[in-house]
Amino acid sequence: MTYWKAAGLTYNRYMAVAARAVRNSLKDGPRLQAERRGLMDLRFAKWENGKQGEVKHVADANKSGMAAQSESK
């Protein structure tokens, strides 16, 4: 049984939550290094009818998606 799937999460979102929990549990020195590694500088854009939409940062979209999901519960 995959609990992340039963909770309505994608595998990538589940891994992001797990990684954040591990980073938050570390002591200050290693935690700061792990937080820097956890920063994302990826961007994406949705394409519709052959035209590129607004370019968004993956980290910002992930935060807003998680906030929207927690509000819907």
The arrangement of helices and strands along the chain is: HHHEEH
Strand order of the largest sheet: 1-2
Q: Which secondary-structure class do the elements indicate? A: alpha+beta
Q: In what range is the share of β-strand residues?
A: 15-25%
Specify the helix fraction band: 55-70%
Q: Care to count the β-strands?
A: 2
- State mean pLDDT (0 to 100 scale): 83
Count of discrete structural domains? 2
Shape annotation:
extended
- The gyration radius over C-alpha positions equals 15 Å
What are the segments in which pLDDT stays under 50 over at least 5 consecutive residues? none
Number of helices: 4
Instruction: Please summarize the sheet with the most strands.
Output: 2 strands, antiparallel
- Terminal Cα separation, in Å? 22 Å
Pfam family, one: ATP-synt_Eps
Protein name: Mitochondrial ATP synthase epsilon chain domain-containing protein
GO cellular component, one term: proton-transporting ATP synthase complex
Family: Belongs to the eukaryotic ATPase epsilon family.
Structure notes:
It is a single chain. 62% of the residues lie in helices and 18% in strands. The chain has 73 residues and is α+β, with helices and mostly antiparallel strands. The protein has two domains: 1-39; 41-72, no CATH class. A hairpin with a 2-residue loop joins strand 1 (43-48) and strand 2. The longest helix is centred in the first third of the chain and has 15 residues, at 11-25. It is extended and about 50 Å long. One of its GO terms (cellular component) is mitochondrial inner membrane. It holds the Pfam family ATP-synt_Eps. Belongs to the eukaryotic ATPase epsilon family. This is Mitochondrial ATP synthase epsilon chain domain-containing protein.
